[in-house]
Amino acid sequence: MNIFKSKKKKNGVLEQKITEDAYEDLKALLMRAKPEVEEDRIVLKLPRGDVILTKDSLRIIAESREDAEKILRNLHHYSMPPGLWPAYGLSYSIKRDSAVLRKSKA
Predict the structure, then answer these.
(1) Contact criterion met (CB below 8 Å) for 82 and 50
(2) 54 lies in a domain?
(3) The CATH number of the domain where 32 resides is what?
């Protein structure tokens, strides 16, 4: 029964130290998904968590450890065409300019 089970969530943070070569490869891969770039950090917001890349580490923050592990396993799928990304739980942000989206008066 669920009444007696603990509702405590598991820690959903994975952090991995990376080399300079790995940083360059991951940066090129993540840039395909149009992440937010904050000074020396690249932050990719996914539906189930966030991927944060810095020069010396890769950090994945999700609600549960299982979600974080799944994101880590699926990151390499960003090398595939964007149409396949949703099948792996990945997404890309579409940044729209309000001037471009003005309604036509035709």
Answers:
(1) no
(2) yes
(3) 3.30.310.10
> How many CB atoms neighbour CB 61 within 10 A?
18
Domain hosting 54: range is: 12-79
| Element of type H or E holding 53 | strand 49-53
**pLDDT digits over 43-95, tens only?**
988 888 899 999 999 999 999 999 888 888 888 777 776 666 666 666 665 55
Confirm whether 90 is domain-assigned. Answer: no
Alpha-carbon gap, residue 104 to 44, rounded angstroms:
33
DSSP letter for 67, please.
H
- Comparing CA positions, the residue from 10, 9, 31 lying closest to residue 75 is 31
Rounded CA-CA distance 49/89 in Å is 10
Q: How many domains in the chain? A: 1
Cβ neighbors of 15 (< 8 A, separation 6 or more) are 57, 58, 59, 60
